[in-house]
Amino acid sequence: LLFISNNRIAFCSERSIKVTSSTGKLLKVHYKVMIPLEKINRAAASANAKKSTQKYVQIVTEDNFEFWFLGFLNHQRTLKNGSSRQGGDCVGGSPRDLSTLTKREYVELMT
């Protein structure tokens, strides 16, 4: 699940992952990430070259750490609705290219 607010982007995995504790015990935990908006350097959207229905969003932080989010159920609808809320600002008649957005515009687009 991807959560986007005016301050941060947060992710929590739907499925748990298995990790080994310091005592050797096997634990199941949910993978969680929280990225403050001021730490985001850029964001971009892309699709799988072989399967264009698989959409991805890449977020790169100031320290060049990359986060890839995938599995959007309504990726195209989200982009379309975001573009129309921004006064229909489109590139070539299609939703805006996320690579040209500022951090704040990206959050407004995805919420």
Task: Give a description of the structure.
The protein has one domain (2-110). The radius of gyration is 16 Å and the shape is globular. The longest helix is centred in the last third of the chain and has 11 residues, at 75-85. The protein has 111 residues and is an alpha+beta fold. It contains two helices and eight strands. The protein has helices at 75-85, 103-110; strands spanning 2-4, 8-20, 26-36, 40-47, 55-61, 66-70, 90-91, 94-95. It is 17% helix and 46% strand. A three-stranded antiparallel β-sheet has the order 1-2-3, with no helix packed on it. Strands 4-5-6 form a three-stranded antiparallel β-sheet, with no helix packed on it. A two-stranded antiparallel ribbon has the order 7-8. This is Gem-like protein 7. InterPro entries: GEM-like, PH-like_dom_sf.
Q: Could you outline the blueprint of secondary structure elements for this entry?
A:
Elements: E1 2-4, E2 8-20, E3 26-36, E4 40-47, E5 55-61, E6 66-70, H1 75-85, E7 90-91, E8 94-95, H2 103-110
Antiparallel strand pairs: 1-2, 2-3, 4-5, 5-6, 7-8
Keywords, separated by commas or semicolons:
single chain, Gem-like protein 7, 3-stranded antiparallel beta sheet, GEM-like, PH-like_dom_sf
Shape: globular
**Proportion in β-strands:** over 45%
Q: Would you report the number of β strands?
A: 8
Distance between the termini: 13 Å
Fraction of helical residues: 10-25%
- What's the helix count? 2
Taking the sheet with the most strands, its summary is: 3 strands, antiparallel
- Uncertain segments are 77-100
Class from secondary-structure proportions:
alpha+beta
In round numbers, the mean pLDDT is 71
Strand order of the largest sheet: 1-2-3
Number of domains: 1
CA-atom Rg in angstroms: 16 Å
